[in-house]
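Entry type: protein chain
Record version: 2
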Amino acid sequence: MKYNQYRFKFYLNATHSIYIDGQLGEEHPHTWEITIQTIKVKEDFITFNAIEKDMEKYLDSFQDRYLNKNAPFITLNPTLENICIYFKEAFQKILVQKGWLLLSIEMSETPTRSYMIDISDEIKIN
């Protein structure tokens, strides 16, 4: 069975500080680029902007903020990897409600530094 795959990009402007060797570093800004690869499993028609609006609505609670003051990053070190893992789980929930599945997420904190999670092997389509 063939499924339609789509890629979406989102941008998050926020600051963070990370703990290195138990010491909190300096607060600094990033424009994170978040790219997700998805499969649409429902046959119904849905406009792209419906998915984009839901994702952007979720990201709004982090937009232009100091991540260390937002749950879960009050206690979870807001490294690139931890942020990506947390967003992956949130994005999966949003997509499933719309009849889509997340295949991968890539998060970049600079144009030359990214972290990727490929979950396509874990996907089970009924």
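Comment: The first strand starts at residue 4 and ends at 16.
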